Write a sequence for this structure.
């Protein structure tokens, strides 16, 4: 028993080989980079999910009977609505229907 504790102290007193020290620094550095990446990911999600949702359709826009909007695009001069049937409706900013395209 006395020999085991003495040999353990001798093993601790010996310096680590250069390869093991390099590997230790490499693992520590990679863990730090991974931790920083996780923090950046969470911060990015916090910022992106905290933004307000897209604007609602103006009340003046009236969709055809039985149609519901699947996609809405707000451009500078018009609003484009794609219905669940695939019809593309082009409205001006005041909500007046300008054109429609059937699938």
């Amino acid at each position: 028993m006395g020999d085991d504790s003495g040999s353990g102290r001798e093993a601790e007193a010996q310096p680590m080989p250069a390869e093991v020290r390099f590997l230790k620094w490499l693992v520590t550095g990679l863990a730090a980079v991974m931790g920083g990446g996780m923090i950046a990911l969470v911060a990015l999600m916090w910022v992106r999910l905290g933004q307000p949702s897209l604007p609602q359709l103006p009340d003046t826009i009236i969709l055809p009977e039985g149609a519901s909007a699947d996609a809405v695009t707000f451009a500078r001069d018009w609003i484009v609505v794609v219905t669940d049937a695939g019809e593309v409706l082009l409205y001006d900013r005041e909500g007046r229907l300008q054109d429609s395209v059937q699938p």
Notes: The mean pLDDT is 85.
